[in-house]
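Database export, one record per block. Field names are fixed; values are copied verbatim from the stored entry.
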Amino acid sequence: MQEQKLSDIPSWILSNRNIKIAYASFTDSYLIIIFPDKTSSTDICSNVTIDTQEQLNEFVTAYLPGFKLEVNGGFMMLADMELRKVNEKGEKNLYLIPAYKFNGLIITGTEEIIKEALNDEDIKHGALNIWNSCLSGLDPNSGSFYEQLERIFDKFRCLIKRKSFLERRIHRYLNGHADKLLPSHINAYFEHNLVLSGKKRTADFILQMEELHPALLIELENPTKTLVKKNGEITAEGLHARYQIAEWVRFIEQNPDNAMGDMNFLWGEKRRLVIMGNSNGNIEALKNNSIYSDTKFWTYDILLEEAKKRWNKIIEEQCNYLGIKMSKEF
C-alpha cells in the first residue's frame, strides 16, 4: 500500500536488467555489472572470460567511461553513483566536473566471497533495509535502517537527560521523528491551535490514528520534573498537565470549528497522554494511575521503550514474513 515510495528505491530494482559477468582468470575473480535496460522486455545475462588487466580495462570502459577498476579477489559492491574527474590542471577536489553517472550495481570478488556476501538471508535483510529506509524517509546510503533508527533513539535518550534542558528542543526533535518515536499514527499535528470564544490553546501533539481508533492528544512536560511521588500518586505538575489536555477537549467539544476539514477525526472519543519526567522505577505506579484515570501517564523513558517495542514488533513481523531471523533488537 506504499507504491508511491517505489520511486525512492535503487534503479536496478523492478527494472529489466542487463547483467554482464566477467571472469578475470588472472586473479580468479569475478566482475558483475548490472544496469537497468529500458529497451529490453526481460533480464539479459552474458558471460565473458578476461585474461589480462588490459582486457579488463577495455571491458570496464565500455560500460563505465573513464572508470578504472582492479579486480583482485577482494569483495566490493558499488551502486548508483556519479563518477567525477578533476579539472584540466589535475588539481583534486577543485571544480570537480561530472564525468559519468552510473545507475546500477557493480560487484567484484571471488566466487566464494560473493556467495558468502550475497547469501539469501543477507539479501532479504538488505531488501528489508532498503524498504524500511525509503518508507521512513531515511537515506539508505547513510547506514542501515537499524543503525539510523538506533542513532535517533540514542540522540533522544541524550536529549532528555541533559540538565540544560530546553523544552522546545524535545518538541522539535519529536516533531522531526514523530513516525519513529510517537505511538503509531496516520498524521501528527504539532503545536496545533484550538480556539474557543476568542481564547486559544496550543496542543503539543494531536495524532490521527488508524481508522475507527480515537484521536490521541499528547501534552509534553519537562523531563526533569517529577511525575510520580514516592507513594505512587501523580504530582501536582502531572495533574496540571492532565488539566491542560482536558482544556483542549473542552475547546474541541464546545467549538465545532476545531474539528472541521482535515481535523474531523477529532469528533467523538479522544484518548489523552501526558509525557513527563523519568519513571525512576515507578512504572507499575504509572500503570495503576492510568487505569483509573481518563488520562494515560508516561515518562520520557517509557516513551522511548514503547517506541523500541513497536519497531521490534514491526521488524520481527517483516522477518517472519520473509522467513529470516531478526538480527537483533533495539
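Remark 1: The domain at 149-310 is CATH 3.40.91 (Restriction Endonuclease).
Remark 2: The chain has a mean pLDDT of 87.
End of record.
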